[in-house]
């Protein structure tokens, strides 16, 4: 008898929880890439739980550009002007699929190979490799904007 009641309780809990799970659509984004998401009508506010994982920019026409900023999972809530929830999404940011990871003992370096292998910025790489890539990218970006070398890295 008790076993039957417990089984019934689990079934009822599943029926109550199921509609909430259906509302939370999973959006998968690769770090440093963007994905376009169509939002429902009447959007007034977007809330991203952890903006260091993903960022969102609301565009005209009911679109949101979601950009992967760091590895992990966060949530997105879309509200109307009265604070009503129009949509909820889970955003999962993952590593790029192409590339090569080189391990030297405990030190790690990531290369992007498209078609030639070059160092790329990936959290978790050894500090020396990461700092060198940041410095080189800052110098390159400073030169491309016509400013002094490394100008964008200082900003």
Secondary structure blueprint with pairings:
Elements: H1 2-23, E1 24-30, E2 34-38, E3 45-48, E4 54-59, E5 63-68, E6 72-79, E7 85-94, E8 100-104, E9 107-113, E10 117-119, H2 127-144, H3 151-154
Parallel strand pairs: 1-7
Antiparallel strand pairs: 2-5, 3-6, 4-5, 6-7, 8-9, 9-10
Low-confidence sequence ranges: 4-22
CATH class of the largest domain: Mainly Beta
Tally of strands: 10
Tally of discrete structural domains: 2
Which series of helices and strands comes N to C? HEEEEEEEEEEHH
CATH architecture of the largest domain: Sandwich
Q: How many distinct helices? A: 3
Main beta sheet: strand number and arrangement? 4 strands, mixed
Mean pLDDT: 82
Given the C-alpha coordinates, what overall shape results? elongated
- Rounded to an integer in angstroms, the radius of gyration calculated over CA atoms is 22 Å
Task: Please indicate the percent range of residues in DSSP E strands (runs of 2 or more).
Answer: 35-45%
Can you list the strand order of the major beta sheet?
Answer: 1-7-6-3
Summarize the amount of helix as a percent range. Answer: 25-40%
Structural class: alpha+beta
Rounded to the nearest angstrom, the distance between the terminal CA atoms is: 69 Å
In short:
Helices cover 28% and strands 39% of the residues.
Task: Walk me through this protein's architecture.
By secondary structure, the protein is of the alpha+beta class. It has two domains: 24-94, Immunoglobulin-like (Sandwich), CATH 2.60.40.1080; 100-149, no CATH class. 28% of the residues lie in helices and 39% in strands. It contains three helices and ten strands; from the N terminus they run H-E-E-E-E-E-E-E-E-E-E-H-H. The strands form three sheets. It has a four-stranded mixed sheet with strand order 1-7-6-3. Strands 2-5-4 form a three-stranded antiparallel sheet, with no helix packed on it. The radius of gyration is 22 Å and the shape is elongated.
């Amino acid at each position: 008898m008790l076993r039957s009641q417990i089984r019934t309780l689990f079934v009822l809990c599943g029926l109550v929880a199921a509609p909430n799970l259906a509302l939370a659509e999973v959006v998968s984004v690769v770090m440093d890439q963007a994905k376009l998401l169509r939002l429902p009508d009447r959007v007034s506010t977007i809330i991203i739980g952890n903006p260091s994982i993903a960022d969102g920019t609301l565009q005209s026409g009911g679109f949101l550009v979601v950009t992967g900023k760091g590895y992990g999972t966060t949530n997105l809530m879309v509200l109307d002007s009265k604070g009503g929830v129009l949509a909820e999404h889970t955003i999962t940011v993952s590593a790029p699929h192409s590339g090569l990871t080189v391990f030297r003992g405990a030190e790690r370096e990531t290369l992007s190979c498209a078609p030639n292998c070059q160092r790329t910025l990936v959290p978790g790489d050894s500090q020396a490799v990461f700092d060198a890539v940041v410095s080189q990218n800052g110098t390159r970006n400073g030169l491309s904007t016509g400013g002094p070398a490394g100008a964008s890295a200082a900003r």
